[in-house]
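Try it yourself: sequence plus manganese (II) ion, in.
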Amino acid sequence: MLTASPKSKLPKPSTSDAPLPAADSAAAASFAGLLERLDYLSGSDIDQVRQAYRFADEAHLGQLRKSGLPYITHPIAVAAQCAEWKLDAHALQAALMHDAMEDCGVTKQELIERFGAPVAELVDGLTKLEKLEFDTREQNQAESFRKMLLAMAKDVRVILIKLADRTHNMRTMGDMPRSKWGRISRETLEIYAPIAHRLGLNFTYRELQDLSFRFLLPWRYQVLNKALEKSRKRRTDLIDRVKVEVQQAFEAHGMPVRILGREKTLHSIYQKMDGKHLSFSQVTDIYGFRIVVPEVKDCYTGMGLLHQMYKPVPGKFRDYVAIPKANGYQSLHTTLIGPVGTNIEFQLRTESMDVVAESGVAAHWLYKAKAPESAAAQNLGTQWLQSLLDIQQETHDAAEFWDHIKIDLFPDAVYVFTPKGKIMAMPRGATVMDFAYAIHSGVGHHAVSCRINGEQRALRSELSNGDVVEIVTDPNAEPSPVWLSFVKTGRARSKIRHHFKTAGENTSIDLGRRMLSQALRSEGLATMPSEAETDKALWDKLLRFTGNRSTDELFGDIGMGKRIASMVAKKLAATMTEAGHRPDPLLISTARFSVDEESVMQGVLTLDGSEGHSVQYATCCKPIPGDGIVGYLGRGESLMVHTHECPHGKRLLARDSERFLSVEWSEEPTRAFESGVLVTVANGKGVLARVSAAVAAAEADIAHVDMGREPAQSTTDLVFTLSVRDRVHLAEVLRTLKRTPSVIKAQRAKPSRA
Ligand code: MN
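Structure, out:
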């Protein structure tokens, strides 16, 4: 029989029928059993743990585990595992109460009052993790989920307690309904076992893997377990012989060592068989020895001794002493060909390396517990763990300590869920809109609102780890330029910019085409040449003249005011005439003087407010539907719309009439327009509120309001910018205002800057 494991460690996960670990038996589950493991704590610490136990016991009173045992046996078992890792009193208290908030309706406030904020924070952290559910149907997101778990746990103790919790739940999985085995085991295998591994909790890592394997593939587990038992019986003599030989060799060399037998876990045997298509008998490194030596140099001396005794298998030597694994693991590994040609793996390491290998991050509390030996930490060697220990020694603060780990492992990321359970990694500080664009640019472009964890939130809200984010879209919605002021990711930024660029281009092209068509009518030609093949020669000639590469580019230039439509139209008309088109003199006269002649509507540019950036409504006169309007095409700008009366517009017309276009309102404008309204009121309490109410009653929105600056007078001028549908609506608003008490005068504001 393979022996020599220390009593408290290395249960053989493969021997599933053996008595369960002490913490699991009903007897040890009593609090007395836990107390026995607390000899590393002070009397007052133990007292605190006892209080937490009483509290939890009362909270879970009457609840039973699936096994029929009192529920409190579970938190006690979890605390016992934490005690094995020598976690501090706060962690043990939290372990005892870890299910109290979720299952018993205990509030965080209650915990703060009774046990203090640090313990309450730990319990709260655990409760939050409890609510996360890993969706195994989504491919390739286990890594993200692990990172999210670690990022959410503000304190490494939360993760350790969570691992203890999961370990106990896996040990007692047999009591759960079979239908749950698959999901929980997969989650354990993909999420929790790797976290244990990453933290260097080797022992827990192996146990979680084997338990998952056992409940995930029960039949294969049983077959393999039987095979291993048989093989173990056959190999016992051999293994014993090797052990004795090695022991003697080290004694002869005068080096005191501890030799531990090691057996590959069933899960890793299965993985090897599965991955390399081997039969059980072909897996050769099932057995191995760990040799714990006094000093680092002895690892190499010991290796030399072993290589003299047995022939090494080429390519199997690994030096994790000089180059430790990322989780702090250090050892020398070699595989030797033992008696009768059996491969046997050897690991050589020092006592302190062994502690790290078995307990990982928890080792750091082990060292803290026995302070005089903390110098041993200097031997740990690995940069990662070493630096963590340094930080710990400097700060003496577990939370800060964990923050450093997180920054090392998972720099600037938050992890959030889609409503379907897919995990998205976003940079820290990312907002809802970044998330929307990360899903799909279509989702981003049409986003109108969002829910985070079921609650309505603003699109600019920052994301937190674990958030479930749902974007509400509307196919008619368009991006807002405001988004550019808060999005954090380059992707969202460039998508929004691109949208405005192309949207602007398209409306400019469209506008330019209409403007050219209108200008062409003024030249007596009713229809533009077709843009299809038939009239291609005409257009090509025109393009050579203007120097544009395409008609779209030319239209765009016209639409954006880079070219004057009438000039281009003249050239086009000339070209068309050359090609045999005949201008209509009547059309010339009507079209040319159409600006003020409402009867001639053809060829006039119709505006409905949906033009986007290519058309702007002047802020001096603020035109609204119903107003007589003119369009001024500034140089390199969009088309600016003024009212007929606007003095500013009139001045431009006098100076630059070539650049004016006739425009008119569409029958059905698509949006409200802003108009200036001047309201003179008698000063008094609540006047502004009354006026605002009157505006609202008339169904107009206040976009802006300016108050007069002379409160000494008996009246005040309020200058409102109101959103109204058209002139009729504005008249209605003014009537309502005039009827309002305290309002002396209400009128449309005169164009400013005139
Ligand atoms: Mn639990």
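One thing you can check immediately is this: Residues 498-653 form one domain.
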